[in-house]
Amino acid sequence: MTFTNVQKNMLKEKVEAFLKANRDGAGKPMSQAKFCDMSGSSTSVISFLLQGKFNQTNASGTIILSDNVLTKINEFFTQGEIVYELANYTKVFNAIVEAKKYQQQRIIDGPKGSGKTFACLSTMKQIPRETYYVEGTTDMTSKRFIMAIADSMGVDNKGDRLTIRIRTCEKLLRDKLPCLIIDQAEKLPDSAFGSIQDIYDYKWLFHKMSIVIIGANDFYTSLLDKEKRKNAKAFPQFLSRFGVDPVFLQPKEKGDGSAKMICQKYHGITDRDVIAEFDQKSTDYRQLDKLIHNYKNNLKLASNDQSRSTNAA
């Protein structure tokens, strides 16, 4: 797997969140040394990752945070990447695969924690060739958005917005079956949607590429509202291109049986009290997954401590 800067930052955030979520007996975040012990990584690797020094080299000039090294860290979190066979996953998988195959433009709308990003990244691993991923952020300008697209494709992102966009579009024209996935689109500024439309229209690119736009918090409805109230010139044109047959995902509901199915089928957790606690505490699948992950890691830590105590005796 080749890691883009976006994916490297996502992995960095995963490690940071894990250290904060797993605390020692004094209530302090887990130490980097403890995480290194669990993940099998060196202290220098984790240190450079948390500092965001992705291009740091050793004495011989070799990049320390190589794709192989990052893959090993990522595998600690994915644990073989368990894919929950839920309806939301199937909807996202089918939408992306069909869009890429038939050069379709799709919008996927789902509540936070409904599994959009996980399903998207998991699907990308199955169709990695010429599949590009960009994630919106709240502070992203339209130029930074175009730069992020260029970066995901390995295209030079220097110059003004128009130059970068044309350079990116020409790369897409050279590809055989490109697919651009834009995640967390609800965070993008309005001007970014004009840029997406410009890519779509460039030299009839829409005949040979697919664009999948993923958003949360009633994203599709917000586009309809913008069409009616704000930027009325741009959004009707945007929706006429991308708003056909949107995909809607469903939220996790307490007592819907999904927590029990995930715990038992995918993690071997059968304790009814534990499952009931997870179901009540989690309002979405992301929270449920974190609860399960922390529970299993605590069991692993307890087992390791027991083994050390036994060996010491």
How would you sum up this structure, described in words?
The structure is a single chain. The protein is of the alpha/beta class and 313 residues long. It folds into three domains: 1-78, 434 Repressor (Amino-terminal Domain); 87-248, P-loop containing nucleotide triphosphate hydrolases (Rossmann fold); 252-307, no CATH class. 57% of the residues lie in helices and 7% in strands. The protein has helices spanning 5-21, 32-39, 43-50, 67-78, 87-102, 116-126, 142-153, 161-174, 190-201, 219-229, 235-242, 258-267, 272-281, 285-312, and strands at 105-109, 131-135, 179-183, 210-215, 247-248. Strands 2-3-4-1-5 form a five-stranded parallel beta sheet, with helices on both faces. Helix 7 (142-153) packs parallel to helix 8 and helix 7 crosses helix 9 (190-201). The longest helix is centred in the last third of the chain and has 28 residues, at 285-312. It is globular and about 70 Å long. The mean pLDDT is 86.
In short:
By secondary structure, the protein is of the alpha/beta class.
Count of extended strands: 5
SSE ordering:
HHHHHEHEHHEHEHHEHHH
The CATH topology of the largest domain: Rossmann fold
CATH architecture assignment of the largest domain: 3-Layer(aba) Sandwich
| Widest sheet: strand ordering | 2-3-4-1-5
Counting DSSP H or I runs of 4 or more residues, the number of helices is: 14
Number of structural domains: 3
**Alpha carbon gap, first and last residue:** 43 Å
Q: Summarize the main sheet.
A: 5 strands, parallel
Q: Write down the CATH class of the largest domain.
A: Alpha Beta
Helix content: 55-70%
**Computed structural class:** alpha/beta
Q: In what range is the share of β-strand residues?
A: 5-15%
Q: Measured on Cα atoms, how large is the radius of gyration? A: 22 Å
- CATH superfamily membership of the largest domain: P-loop containing nucleotide triphosphate hydrolases
Low-confidence stretches: none
Mean pLDDT across the residues is 86
**Broad shape:** globular
